[in-house]
Amino acid sequence: MTLHPEALAVPGSEPARDTPAHLTTDLICPARDIFDAAALWAELSAATEDARDAAEVRNLTVTALRAAMKSGRAAIAEALAATPFDAHGATASYSHLTDGIVATVHRMATERLHPLPTPTASERISVLAVGGYGRGEMAPQSDVDLLFLTPYKITPWAESVIESMLYMLWDLRLKVGHAARTIDDCLRLGAEDITIRTALLESRPVCGDEPLARELDDRLWSDLFNGTLAEFIEAKLAERDTRHEKQGQRYVVEPNVKEGKGGLRDLQTLFWVAKYQHRVNHPWELVSKGVFTEEEFDTFREAESFLWAVRCQLHLLTNRPSDQLTFDLQVEVADRLGFEDTAGRRGVEHFMQAYFRHATQVGDLTRIVLTALEAQHLKQEPRLMRLLKRRKKLKHGFVQKQGRLDVADETQFLSNKLNLLRIFEEGLRTGMLIHPNAMRLLSHNLDLIDDEMRKDKEAIRIFLDLLLKHGNPERALRRMNELGVLAAFIPEFEPIVAMMQFNMYHSYTVDEHTIQVISNFAQIERHELEDELPISSEIIDKGVNRKTLMVAMLLHDIGKGRPQDHSILGAQIARKVAPRLGLTTRECETVEWLVRYHLLMSDMAQKRDIADPRTVQDFAKAVRSVRRLDLLTVLTVCDIRGVGPDTWNNWKATLIRTLYNQTRRALEDGIEALSRETRGTEAKRALRQALSDWKPKDLKTETARHYDAYWQGLHVSAHTVFARMLKDIDVDEVRVELEPDEDRDVTRAYVVLADHPGIFSRLAGALSAVGANIVDARTYTSKDGYATACFWLQDAEGSPYDVDRKPRLMRMVHKMLKGEVIAHEAIAGRDKIKKRERAFKVPTTITFDNDGSEIYTIIEVDTRDRPGLLYDLTRTLANTNVYIASAVIATYGEQVVDSFYVKDMFGLKFHAEHKQKLLEDKLRKAIEKGAERARA
């Protein structure tokens, strides 16, 4: 029997035997709007009747099919735009369209190009769809994977048919993956290659000889699949682990919808394993097999539908098989799927929160299926699980099942709702993972966690013990969060579950970030970070209120996603939650203060000049006590480290450490210990010791040539370098030194030359032109008219700038100072924003602070980062006769905060509002002009 396009199933018709149930899904629009096989064949028959040769027949066929394919795709895309979440209908429709094209090409090849009036038994061919196409699930740009099946060795006739079909499919610009094999070939190759075996598992006849296709199906199950389930499962799980390692975890900010953790491939792996075991054609059949409950199948279907909807939109937007949800595409997909902006959050953030919640659910389903396989001894238990069988004796009501913690009696377990927390305590006490059966029980009975339980002293005791007693709170918190228990016990936590922050700075969702912060604290307590975090480790060792600190960490970002400042709102939420968790009045006040000011130390260290005594004085006044300083320091360090795997570095560590030490000194010895006079005297004494080989006369000259700001703004190591560079310098000479600073992950660039207006801007332009990223800068003018500028540099990857590039840097500095190179032209090639980063919106905020420094006005510019920004800002200030003493650069992904310590040409602060407004307007114009250049 030969199947033609007219025989293809349409909505409401009875599907052909062995057609996967996916194809019984209603199409997204009428079948004839997608592909009208009968009408097209009539058209082709008439058009090719008088064709001169085979080439003309092929050309006419391709022309007609190209028009039909374009029309069909347009009909599906239009229907998908109207109902964007009808992903199953869309994927079935794309498969239906492909079936029509393949079957028409086959019919043309066998009936018009290579007809056989009396075919022999060996001259048969069956065309099967394999892979995703075989499942009947195709995205707009999916490959067309075909198996050309013949009974014996391929005959010349079959070879001609296959060749003609492929030429026509290629001429249609379809991405065709194909193989021509006999049944024996399929069995042999399937036994050798797990990828081929998986493709065969999902094979589906499209057209050609149906008995041949049915024979392959029977032989596969009897000769290949039968008895090899354990082998197949182990291979697919190894594939999954490799894929996850390559793609990253499900919380990566630009996930791969197909291959990433919690993506479509994970769902498909579940189905492959289940089909291999139970010979099912549709996931709903797993309910009757006891693998899923009906509720779990609904979760499976919803996650699958959501992920397919996203993938379809990705393909339509890019017009290629793109599965990576890059930042720019996230915005467009969110818009197409109907996610809208709300107060405090963008539509794309709502969309990505939905994405991550579905990814989490996919992970839960994976655990359920794998454990069910372990129960049947089809998959070997992990070695760790086998070792855990010999662990501590379990408390009453709990049992060990497959090396995991399960409940002995569900009814008895649920009779005491505190057991919903006790099971996590027992898991941490014994070191055992929780069995998916118990996970099911917990997630299905979250309604037991009510206000009465939240106020129960024993429940509070158990919860706090999970955080404080067992040494690895992150494990319990992560599982509680995934199962919904954490949000049920602390309802204020629910809004931030799977909440994505749409920026390049945060690598995790808000809830995962919170757990990472607590994990960092636990690592410090376990003495795993003593070398990396000596101050925090010392603070923890000497003793702090762990309960206060842990609750503050849990709540520090709980106010995110709302219109209000999340620190202020978070403090208000903490005021309600902390007493509910049994904290004393003083502890509650401290938690509220820590949540309210959890960004204060980070901002002071990264956005202000901590060499300025006023910065430390103001911070000390805000903190008020060493006790609070200790708590805030640990919270700050854990918070920054919890942002992402590469966020914390030696530069930030040095800033935090320096601010801590100076603030502690101020709190213990008094603010006057940080006075300019005191620090200047100490700095000069340190320089004399460092230059003990110098003549007293030369030392006196060097210590007298600088103003007070120079002595309190730089370390003695910098004073020493500048002293040597200034010695015997000529007025026309420019000296440059590069020195690695491994402790801070930077390279220090020292520049000495005769001072003149705009020097800071020109030097910044020269550094940007040679690919240096300035993370901090100071410039001072000596009493005898020399500029001493120090820049802390990194490359584009955040590594120290290569000192071997000094000759190129010096040439660029000389050219820039002589006017031979125009800075904005030199950096034009670098001053571009990448396409994937253009979706970020960073509003520009410019503030003037005359209180943060005794002698300078601090101009803080918070805006979108780009390579040429610092030069544009400093040039604008220089052209307005603003003297820049120092610049502090803090980068947060696509956002940057540049703080400039400035004076006017008379050495005064900018107090007048009209002068501030003039400067702000000019800075905004420079930012906008540069942004236009970067977008071009």
Question: How would you concisely characterize the structure shown here?
Answer:
This protein is an alpha+beta fold. The strands form 3 sheets. It has an 8-stranded antiparallel β-sheet, with helices on both faces. Helix 22 (473-483) packs antiparallel against helix 24 and helix 33 (676-690) crosses helix 36 (716-726).
Approximate strand percentage: 5-15%
Q: Helical region count?
A: 41
Structure summary, number of beta strands? 15
Placed side by side, the strands forming the largest sheet appear as 8-9-11-10-14-15-13-12
Largest sheet entry: 8 strands, antiparallel
Poorly predicted runs of 5 or more residues: 1-24
The global form is globular
- Global mean pLDDT: 88
Distance between the termini: 60 Å
Structural class: alpha+beta
Gyration radius over CA: 34 Å
Helix content: 40-55%
